[in-house]
Specification:
By secondary structure, the protein is α+β, with helices and mostly antiparallel strands. It is 16% helix and 32% strand. It is built from 3 helices and 11 strands; from the N terminus they run βαββββββαβαβββ. It has a 7-stranded mixed sheet, covered by helices on one side. A two-stranded antiparallel ribbon has the order 2-3. A hairpin with a 2-residue loop joins strand 4 and strand 5.
């Protein structure tokens, strides 16, 4: 049975609206000091939409919406590091990165069978996407650099590709 943990949308919304008088402008959040420390400033915008842990399998599934204009290999590497730091356990983690709301299931759609259980063939996706995988000491990124071409590129960050 999957146990859903917190959604981080609220924290992102609070961050965009501002805390303690900080406001967002067209170039992003303004720097502000809190108790003498600089507020963390991300180089790109992303939101964690979904986080679920299956305690029986000791696996975590995360869904992230990334600003499409920031989608490139270096950003995906940094995003992998940020998500891995936030979710250290369990060791097995699968992160799906979307760049459009059209790639993200609504709660009602999430309740329906997955594509592997369905006979519906999806249309080619015009938006880039990626999978970040941490499993058995291996870390890798698989992404589509030039959609709608579905050809994927794999970047091994540590270890080897468990499914070459």
């Amino acid at each position: 049975m999957k146990t859903q943990t917190s959604l981080l949308i609220l924290s992102s919304v609070i961050g965009l609206v501002g805390i303690g008088g900080s406001v967002a402008d067209s170039s992003g959040l303004r720097n502000q000091k809190i108790a003498g420390e600089d507020r963390p400033q991300s180089k790109f915008r992303y939101v964690i939409l979904y986080d679920s842990v299956d305690p029986n399998l000791s696996q975590r599934y995360v869904e992230v919406l990334l600003d499409e204009s920031a989608f490139r290999e270096e950003t995906l590497k940094e995003l992998f590091a940020l998500v891995s730091k936030r979710y250290r356990r369990p060791e097995w983690m699968f992160v799906r990165v979307a760049t459009s709301l059209r790639q993200v299931a609504t709660p009602e759609e999430r309740d329906w069978p997955n594509i592997s259980e369905s006979r519906v063939v999806p249309e080619p996706d015009p938006h880039p996407s990626a999978i970040l995988l941490r499993q058995d000491g291996n870390e890798l990124i698989r992404y589509t650099p030039s959609p709608p071409d579905a050809k994927q590129r794999t970047v091994i960050l540590r270890g080897k590709d468990p499914n070459p």
